[in-house]
Amino acid sequence: AEVLTQAMAKGEIDLPVRIGGRLNQIPEGSNTSLPVDVTADLVQIGVIPCPDLNTASAVLRQALSPSAKR
User: Fold this and answer.
1) What are residue 42's phi and psi, to 5 degrees?
2) DSSP string, 38-59
3) Using one digit for the tens of pLDDT, what is the confidence trace for 4-20?
4) For 34-48, how does the pLDDT look when each residue is reduced to its tens digit (9 = 90+)?
C-alpha cells in the first residue's frame, strides 16, 4: 500500500485506494513471526481498509452514490 500510494503521488494520480482482506504484517525488526494489525497505518497513509465483503460493499456503494464527491 505504501509503494502504491507513493507511486500514485509521484504520477499525480488522485484516486481512492481500497484494500481488503486480513490487514496485517510482520513488523520489520520483530523477533517473532507474529503479524500485527496494520489497519490504522493504512488509514494514516490514505488507504480505505475493507477487511470483509460487507465493508467493501458499503464502501463501493458510497463511492458510487450520486452524492459522492467526484
Assistant:
1) -65, -45
2) -HHHHHHTTEEEE-SHHHHHHH
3) 999 999 999 999 999 98
4) 888 889 999 999 999
